[in-house]
pyridoxal kinase
Amino acid sequence: MSGSEPPVPETRVLAVASHVVSGYVGNKIAVFVLQALGCDAAALNTVQFSNHTGYKQWKGTRVSAQEITDLFEGLKQSYLDDFEMMLSGYIPGAEAVGAVGNIAKELKEKSKGTPGKFFWVLDPVMGDNGRLYVAEEVVPAYQSLIPYADLILPNQFEAEVLSDVKIVDMDTLTQAIQVLHEKYRVPHIVITSVNLLAPDHPPSHLSVVGSSMTSGGRARLFKIVFPAIDCYFSGTGDMFAALMVVRMRQAVAEVPGLGQRPSWLSDDDTPTLELPLARAAERVLASMNEVLSRTKEGMPKDLKPKTADQNSHLAATKAAELRLVRHLDCLRSPKVEFKARVV
Amino acid sequence: MSGSEPPVPETRVLAVASHVVSGYVGNKIAVFVLQALGCDAAALNTVQFSNHTGYKQWKGTRVSAQEITDLFEGLKQSYLDDFEMMLSGYIPGAEAVGAVGNIAKELKEKSKGTPGKFFWVLDPVMGDNGRLYVAEEVVPAYQSLIPYADLILPNQFEAEVLSDVKIVDMDTLTQAIQVLHEKYRVPHIVITSVNLLAPDHPPSHLSVVGSSMTSGGRARLFKIVFPAIDCYFSGTGDMFAALMVVRMRQAVAEVPGLGQRPSWLSDDDTPTLELPLARAAERVLASMNEVLSRTKEGMPKDLKPKTADQNSHLAATKAAELRLVRHLDCLRSPKVEFKARVV
């Protein structure tokens, strides 16, 4: 690290997500990523669990909506609410989603005289692979908040839920993103882990598809294809989101004046592949690929993750915990191999 | 960081301390230090407060003794209690101290057939500068646990409370450490922030005094003198403790076979200045001095920390939050300038 400067200017980020004692999901991974890349991360933990739920058993408690509100009141009364960015991840229940939304709205309102001063990255954690894993009332709670977000990071299923468009191919994916821009006026969108058959999608590859809208609300779409790693990891969405916070901030800082524009939205004549969102996503995926590869390499070869035996499941789940702390170079200086393409 | 290896082998550490949303004390600083130096840190948070108590106002909640016990049960049921080290810091109340003590005792018991397999670093957080800041019943709770600890890190006041020796000069300090070794059979002791007049103590300097006992329970004392930085920082004890975990592990790993001996205790004929504890403390203080210096340099010059005005107090307290995240090199590769001397 000696001699290598952090990639972003000093940035105060409020990270709201779950905390696990052991392992790497939610704030446990997001806060480390933010800090390792030089951000002053405030961590508001929405739960404290012994371990992530992929183990299928855990202990611990949720933080109530009132406690979330109180913690933010505590920050405000000591002038510690001077956040430049906010990242919200898993929040337990609709009431708590509302409480976190109120924090974001308040921070946004406070900075409204200074465009670009506050930027909210919202990961609308609701479900995956065709199934909700939160209570149904969480969906409208998120829907009412998305118009306040600057960047949302739904996975393919969450994008469907929010847009009411069933995604089956690139056309419907494009349509879903256009609907999200129009319906919620959300400026930046990245859909993570897109899994579609397409001519430019080799087998065993995934993609992310992103867009920063024009002043008229039109999508500007790009896509990054990358090799899937055959393993079930937890926490990848949280790592992706934290890296996006840093790399978006960095990419915007590289464009003079952009950081002072509302929602850091680029000129209409900016080529899609020069959008800061596209450049950020490239760097994020480079880090993701390196961390996941190192994690896979570090796993014992004799694990059988898909047996019905509970002890094998626990051992395999532990072995798949993301390995960041000994691979800081993957976060700091990843090699960009997967490039964005215009959709 | 590229190319620079972590200083310790992969080490799973259970860190038990407070969590603050904003700022750097307790687990908020300890966990980052452990992770930045390559440890797999599990973080069991004993409170979640908006900010540290040095602001004189905060919001948030304490975790009950029962919740602490439950979280550990959660780890055990998924075989996530395979810790090689444990670091315990601030724990709210005697009952919770007992709960944390039970965790340490259980981990110790589990590894008793394999000497050196588990090492507990206990920071008996009770008070400072002549005054307890915990309830009185916390004192006997700690006293009953110290015989299970491998290394304790009391400050000067806590060493007095635990040893019943009033420390007024190097003689009484030496006596207090000898009492701690004998009364509690605790193998390693470092007394942090010793402030005594002594011929080898220039004005505006502090020292730490440490000892690893012989097989017969005799103290082997060393002292490291370093310049005090004129500022009131919070979280320094927690940063010190986390750095000690890493540097002790590293120094022990540098001595063949030592990691397989009970409590990592060196041979009786090991020269005092070659004790791993002394070498670890040198590296720890090097990092501390660099982080505190960078923090001081980064503070606005016009702050008046000692006015009675509450807003000035809040601003000064925020400015004194430790600045680690942009100075990882201070943690990873500090320059050792302050050397241990035999007392």
Notes: Chain B is about 35% helix and 15% strand. The CA atoms of residues 221 and 294 of chain B lie 30 Å apart. Chain B has a mean pLDDT of 94.
